[in-house]
Amino acid sequence: MSRAAVVNRWFGRGWLSLGYLFLYLPIVTLVLFSFNDSPVPNVWRSFTLKWYAALASDGEMLAGLWLSLKIAVLTACTSVVLGTFAAFALVKYKRFSGRTLFSGMVSAPLVMPEVIVGLSLLLMLVSMQHWLGFPERGLLTIWLGHLLLGMAYATVIVQARLHDLNPQLEEAAMDLGARPWQVFTLVTLPMIGQSLLSAWLLTFTLSLDDVVLSQFLSGPGATTMPLVIFSRARLGLNPSVNAVATLIILLVSIGVIVASYLIARRERIRAIDMAAAARA
Amino acid sequence: MSTAQRKAGKLAVIGVPYVWLLIFFLLPFLIIVKISVSEMGAVSVNDLVTYKDGVLALSPRLGNYATVVQDDLYFNTYLSSLKYAAVTTVLCLAIGYPFAYFMARARATVQPALLMLVMLPFWTSFLLRVYAWKGLLTEHGWLFDLITASGLDRLLAAANLIPAPGQLMNTPFSLVLGMTYMYLPFMILPLYSNLSKMDLRLLEAASDLGATAWVAFWKITVPLSKAGIIAGSMLVFIPCVGEFVVPELLGGPQTQMIGRTLWDEFFSNNDWPIASTVAVVMILLIIVPLALFNKYQAEATESRS
Asked: What pTM, to 2 d.p., does this model score?
């Protein structure tokens, strides 16, 4: 191998290593210091589990967690539904009036600063409340905001998968006499199933973590977990936040690693099946 | 299936998300434009159209726009937000492009693991990772001690990134570091997606024609990854302009960001019209990058079909 290629390879490994170090350093530090027995959270003194024990009786945090979980499940389910609708609209129907506006509205929440989305949605809901008497600010309004964001992400994920689908499979099903609804449930849905799950997990995570939209759209008594964490973090370093953070990171890591492993395994099985079919 | 049924199906599939978006995405924007020219009452905004003495009166106040555009405070805040967003984007590109490049050139068996390792922080809570940097950069933290011991903080103070050696938190340094850290995956992922699909035979052809690796990189790889660069840059720049959480937790008095201004106007001053005006002007500022991003999204989906 040429000298340039060797240099390139080691430079690459170095850059990747430093990059991953940068990405993971804060996370690892956060986790380590959740076991720190000290009033000053970022100076190590001794090992303890007392912050985790304290979480069990942290009413504010637990109430926030419960509310956040409810909203997150609601958001994930509805985001996947709306996102699938939008993805189908964009992939199956190449031309319809107002398509540009539609695709713009669907993808804008991906990049639009949340303060703008939060403010505008809140003011609209306030006007709606003024005219129609509902909705009261709380779980419902927070859910609507998260749904807006979640739909954008779900659409991107499902759309990508729909594009990669082989249309011949659906055509074959229709040739064999399947009605459109059957084609959808028996052929299309299983093929996009994985992307629906990915979309569900991603929108669930985003909803669970959202601060800005939740703050704008929440009402009295509707404090989500991120809002509890945020108000504590604003005041300074707080070991209870480290403890919650470690638990969340642990759960997410296990989830992502397991999901990645299962997806990779499924891909390998699928590749084997396809190869076998080609040989037959 | 009859044509009528097909048409009904098409109407439902397009109509449901379309109407939903019109009500919950477009309508709110029209409402904040309306409120930006309204007057703030005691609890809520006064109506624009009033019926006084038998006469309909329309009373828009454009004063808010004049204030926001002319007042030095707002003007400088907008400028500084654009500046920090641009710096963050450039840093993310500088760190992220080689990262994505080496990821894409790694062994095929290793790439999924590399990708998962980049995604993992992305899936972990945004808020908690910002908070983690707060811990690292606050006094007596090990990173803080490392930076002060190595004299790096004197360098930063000389470059005006921190007000004085020894104060790392709530500075332009901590803000840019935080934002770059948070948005790095947003830059890496589209770049990796683009670079991993590149046809390596083009590079072989270039080397056959006598180009060195360096020349091939600049003349072939980089231009071909233009779409990824634009996508990544827009995914970093646009949200950074209006960022709130990172400036709030890691920024300070030197780092005025427009997201915080909007928040303060709404929550602290309870001034809805000004907050709306700030939002509308912010949208106008990001409308060009937004259109660019939209164009890229549309092209990306078109090219796949």
From this structure: 0.89
Host H or E run for residue B174: helix B172-196
Q: What is the SS3 assignment for B243?
A: coil
Q: DSSP label at B47?
A: P
Answer yes or no: is pLDDT of A159 > 80. yes
Chain A residues touching B248 at Cβ < 8 A: 234
| A32 lies within 8 A of chain B by CB | no
Q: Which long-range contacts (CB under 8 A, 24 or more apart) does B70-75 make?
A: B73/B256, B74/B261, B74/B278
pLDDT of B45-56, one tens digit each?
676 666 666 676
Residue A105, domain CATH: 1.10.3720.10
Mean pLDDT along residues B87-115: 92
pLDDT band at residue B305 using 50, 70 and 90 as cut-offs: very low
Cβ-nearest to B31 among A98, A127, A164: A127
Tell me the nearest-neighbour CA distance from A169 into chain B, angstroms: 16
Question: How many structural domains compose chain A?
Answer: 1
For residues B100-120, give the mean pLDDT: 89
- B99's tokens: 């990262």
Q: Pull the structure tokens for residue B20.
A: 């939903």
* Whether pLDDT at B42 is above 70: no
In this structure, is residue A210 part of a structural domain? Answer: yes
**Residues B10 and B92 both lie in one domain:** no
Half-sphere exposure of A256 (CA within 13 A, CB side): 21
Using the beta-carbon criterion (under 8 Å), do B235 and A180 form an inter-chain contact?
no
Give the sign of the dihedral formed by CA A95, CA A97, CA A99, CA A102.
negative
Query: Could you tell me if B92 and B135 lie in one domain?
Result: yes
Choose among B18, B124, B244: nearest Cβ to A27.
B124
CA–CA distance, B176 with B159 (Å, rounded to integer)? 14
Q: Give dist(CA B297, CA B305) in Å, integer.
A: 13
CB contact under 8 A, A229 and B10: no
Identify whether residues B53 and B66 lie together within a single domain. Answer: no
Indicate if the pLDDT at residue A2 is higher than 80: no
Residues B219 and B110 in one domain: yes
Compute the C-alpha angle B86/B91/B95, nearest 5°: 150
Q: Which residues are CB-neighbours of B290 under 8 A, at least 6 positions away?
A: A108, A111, A112, B234, B238
Top mean-pLDDT range of A30-34, B92-96, B266-270: B92-96
Beta carbons within 8 Å of A64's beta carbon, 6+ residues apart: A223, A224, A225, A226, A227, A228
A250 touches chain B (CB under 8 A): no
pLDDT at B95: 95
In a domain, A197, yes or no: yes
